Amino acid sequence: MSAPAIHTPMNLEAASPPWPITFDDVLAARERLAPYLTPTALRHYPLLDDHLGGGTSLLIKHENHQPTCSFKVRNGLSFVTGLTAEERARGVVAASTGNHGQGVAYAASLLGVRATICVPVGNNPEKGAAMRSWGAKVVEEGRDYDESVGAMLRIAKEEGSVVSHSTNDRRVVSGAATMSLEMIEQAGGGGLDAIVIAVGGGSQSVGALTVARELTPKLEVFGAQAAGAPAIHDSWHQRTPVQTPRADTFAEGVATRQPYALTYATLCEGLEGFTTVTDAELAEAIRLILKLTHNLVEGAGALGVAAALKLKDQLRGKRVGVIFSGANIDTTLLRRILNREI
Amino acid sequence: MSAPAIHTPMNLEAASPPWPITFDDVLAARERLAPYLTPTALRHYPLLDDHLGGGTSLLIKHENHQPTCSFKVRNGLSFVTGLTAEERARGVVAASTGNHGQGVAYAASLLGVRATICVPVGNNPEKGAAMRSWGAKVVEEGRDYDESVGAMLRIAKEEGSVVSHSTNDRRVVSGAATMSLEMIEQAGGGGLDAIVIAVGGGSQSVGALTVARELTPKLEVFGAQAAGAPAIHDSWHQRTPVQTPRADTFAEGVATRQPYALTYATLCEGLEGFTTVTDAELAEAIRLILKLTHNLVEGAGALGVAAALKLKDQLRGKRVGVIFSGANIDTTLLRRILNREI
To answer: Which residues neighbour A299 within 8 Å (Cβ) at sequence distance 6 or greater?
Structure first.
């Protein structure tokens, strides 16, 4: 790990609104991540293309192969390696439904930083166990992600630890952007015409838009949310921020109830389209991915494929990047999905 | 791909019986594979160690992340890249319950070689679909793997194609050995004290023994078979080759009924121990791996963990390499396992 890279502040001047990060921030994040992560594969499955039809070719980014089984390890490592020595000594606190928390916990364990993760009451217990296994303290508080954020802020105040917001942090968004940077480079000569990407808080999608703006301005980026947690989707279509009273989806990775300060304006400016997918459609996509590719994905990890099926007319004949963004589905839920109870 | 490496014949002189391949063969295979495969991760899951107990530390080799979701892609690529131009022009034929066939089909598609794969009647249909998706012709014949071998030999005679035996081929065993070479190198300073490895035909285990003999002679290699397909296990314990009338396990990747000419003597000489695992124990290991690591493995892919649980007293306090060797479980079987019907 190179000390100079760690202490480089985000390039705020160049990141004029509505673009919270610059391409240089992404390159810097990639430098910081390089000692800890190797690029994940970008693969092509003829059986998935046959299922989709229309001559569309899906290129699958295997973030399910990451150490914490989720792209969020990029965000956590980008955050923790971006802290100053003084900040590291204070420890970090995050709120998460699991994958951001695992990413932060894993990164903190590698760098010897104390981590506390706030999760909603009744959250996926397997994600909690994984966070603890990386040495983090796990605090269950709040009825959903947005309420856990309150616990995080209180603990940060009480303990003096550094807040690691899962979206509203330039280091986090820059970390997520390294994924799209890899994808675009790996797609090579044929390139990518479009990316279909899950939106929880927006780190993946704003990361993709930032990288695309620099490297492939014609790339179309489509957002996707769960139909039961459509706050950012609705805000995008209405061009005004709206909140929802509940986030009602088994895909806890995207179970948010409002747009986020750092990402919302960029999504409004940059996304080509924005769709939603029901939990039934997500469950079907999980079964399809298992059957045709033998990869395990969680709800949020199936959003790309489920949304690509929904957008098939717009994607006809295109080379489309889709991310298996995470695999941390709990086994009880997986059983219900295989039994077609969902 | 470097032409000289392709045409290098196996180093038969140096490979004195009972060692069918040399360490140089493994290095040559790694060279041939390098343009097509990147090393898979070797990872540590504290939750798995906690479950195992006894201070044993499992290091997991993620062959489930390979392009065909199985280590057999190494074998297939080592085989096809090791063919002469004349052999490639004739096309290849293999017998397989699926993973060797996928490896050969995938390799053949990359190198523009015609491939036919013989599978048992009623074989895992998802594996057959994957083979076809890589452009192979799939022939269903025989009641199990060993009977499909007969179909392979007949087709080779009829069509003049080159036989790709899943075990009795030095290129295949050398390909499998590259996995252990990577593991031992990746384990680094702490090294490995033992490897627990699934035995179907023996390519993985003989590969491990060959590499260990060169690099870490004290490494203990333990073999594991399914209790319902224990022919090689029984032969090892009785020190005489025995066949079984049936191969009765859901782990089709290790459903063999006899020892193989190229690997049996090496197993007799090299293995530290050899155990079996029931299908119920395999099913439990699949559930455990899903819950604690969120990785999908098929029956053969869970053999290492299941056997490590069985051998826990002998593995106490050791650093133990275990391979998630494949993920191509069919979804109907996975559902039954999650429902605890197995």
So the answer is: A226, A249, A250, A251, A252, A253, A254, A279, A282, A286, A329
A5, containing H or E segment: helix A3-7
Task: Say yes or no to pLDDT of A9 above 60.
Answer: no
Helix (H), strand (E) at residue B218: none
- Rounded CA-CA distance B172/B176 in Å is 6
Q: Does B46 touch chain A (CB under 8 A)?
A: yes
Q: Which residues of B123-146 are buried (b: 16+ CB within 10 A; e: fewer)?
A: bbebbbebbebbebebbebbebbb
Which residue among A133, A294, A328 places its CB closest to the CB of B296? A294
Residue in chain B nearest A50 by alpha carbon: B133
- Which CATH code fits A72-164? 3.40.50.1100
User: Which two three-digit tokens encode residue B227?
Assistant: 């209790």
Residue A75: name the closest of A186, A207, A236 by CA: A207
Q: State whether residue A329 sits within 8 Å of chain B by CB.
A: yes
Nearest to B331 among A65, A134, A338 (CB): A338
What is the rounded average pLDDT of the residues B155-168?
A: 96
pLDDT in tens, A50-82: 999 999 999 999 999 999 999 999 999 999 999
Q: For residue B334, which residues of chain A lie inside 8 Å, CB to CB?
A: 290, 338
C-beta atoms of A327 and B294 within 8 A: yes
Q: Do B328 and A294 touch (CB under 8 A)?
A: yes
Instruction: Kindly determine whether residue B335 and residue A339, on different chains, have CB atoms separated by under 8 Å.
Output: yes
Q: How far apart are CA A20 and CA A207, in angstroms?
A: 10
B327/A294 touch (CB, cutoff 8 Å), yes or no: yes
Q: Which two tokens stand for residue A147?
A: 């309420």
Q: Which residues of chain A lie closer than 8 angstroms to B45, CB-CB?
A: 133
pLDDT confidence bin for A14, thresholds 50/70/90: low
Domain coordinates in residue numbering, chain B: 42-65+170-338, 72-164
**Is omega for the bond preceding A18 within 30 degrees of 0, making it cis?**
yes
pLDDT in tens, A173-220: 999 999 999 999 999 878 999 999 999 999 999 999 999 999 999 999
- Chain B residue numbers with beta carbons less than 8 Å from the beta carbon of A330 are 291
How far is A5 from B239, CA to CA, in rounded Å?
60
Q: Which of A294, A335, A338 to mutate to test the interface with B (most CBs of B within 10 A)?
A: A294
Q: What is the DSSP letter of B192?
A: -
* Contact (CB<8Å) B43/A67: yes
Q: By the CB < 8 Å criterion, does A292 face chain B?
A: yes
Topology at the third CATH level for domain B42-65+170-338: Rossmann fold (3.40.50)
Position B145 confidence tier, pLDDT thresholds 50, 70, 90: confident
Report how many Cβ contacts below 8 Å link chain A to chain B.
Answer: 81
CA distance A342 to A328: 17
ipTM above 0.90, yes or no: yes
List residues bridging with B223 in a β-sheet. Answer: B197, B274
CA distance A89 to A113: 7
B331 has a pLDDT exceeding 60: yes
Q: Which residue do the tokens 């240089």 mark?
A: A24
Do B211 and B181 touch, CB atoms closer than 8 A?
Answer: yes
**What does pTM read for this prediction?**
0.94
| Tens-place pLDDT, residues A212-238 | 999 999 999 999 999 999 999 999 999
The DSSP symbol for A254 reads: G
| Intrachain domains A42-65+170-338 and A72-164 with the same fold | yes
